[in-house]
Structure prediction request, 394 residues.
Amino acid sequence: MDIKIRQGDNLWYLSQLLNVPLYLILASNPGVAPEALSPGDTIHVPGYRLVPYTIQPGDNLYSITTKRGLGLDTILLANPDIDPYNLQVSDVLSIPERLTGPLFLTNQPYDYDILTGHIDKLLAAYPFIRKNIIGRSIEGKEIVEVVLGEGNKNIHWNGAFHANEWITTPVLMKFLNDYALALTNNETIRGLTMAPFFQNVRLSVVPMVNPDGVDLVINGASASNNPEEVLRINGGSEDFSGWKANIRGVDLNNQYPANWEIEQARKPDTPAPRDFPGYAPLTEPEAIALAEISPAMQSALAFHTQGEVIFWGYEGLEPPASEVMVEEFARVSGYQPIRYVDSYAGYKDWFIQDFRRPGFTVELGRGVNPLPLSQFDEIYQRTLGILLASLYMA
Ligand SMILES: [Zn+2]
Prediction:
């Protein structure tokens, strides 16, 4: 919620009054100099929303605040234009309300519109979260990076490289929501205090690398700007459940310059629902966007489905830390670590090869893609261990 500074207010006082950690208020207001606040300045307070309330006969300021467990001054702060000591029936007050649960439903077919709506909700409720546009898909959709945390350890997670593996997107979005909620309310997740992660780690999340492809799988050919072309690539079928590629039939996870020629020689040589590595490495804007943010990252996890396995090596180039990390990921998730596999040109392969840092492909869940939403809760619980381990091992 946004409030206006009054004479004598300071951020420490707001933190105490609203019981929100001061570091989060500071992080939510990067352009504000805390020592130079003036009356009328707007301050973003994370973890609250303002709810209108119409005064009823018999109400008074005391009854309104105590019923909600709010300090009296929270009402004064949120209603600078109302004389709270002279309330009239049918006056409308803004009541600060602490967020205590998830902002949005993640257990649903999760297309690009749903994603962008949920990112907007996250940014509004938790203004310490940042959003960067790192590129545009073939059809012009923004490829969004969500950044949470102010530490100097950069770690990166991504989802939905492959269109029909879109369930990875709501898994990451649910975690971002849970993480922000735990920070503002000083709650733990699986017994872990989250504040140190915010201080130590700058977490970069690209929840949907391939938005055009995801929309095609969920909403069909009409979701594309060029329905005839996607139907042609799909062999005339309207069933896009097997589609992994971007909208012009390039498999984004075969696009990276890490033995790309091996995949080129044995994979489809024209656009296809899956596996076509493109006519050259890094031709597709979605793959390029990821490549451009990656040099800053100390580790990277790419979330796919399915198989309940974690790929962690590439040609012996992975650093020793990779093995330590994957053993912990396996311990907390029950997923099986796999070091080498006969596969090249993937994001994780390139990340390991170019930076010699830990990179992982994590295959969530088990079954036929797209995995059914009935698996969401179990997948989330397993993945949660990996996400937390990624933070505490950063
Ligand atoms: Zn995949």
About this structure: Residues 168-184 form the longest helix (17 residues).
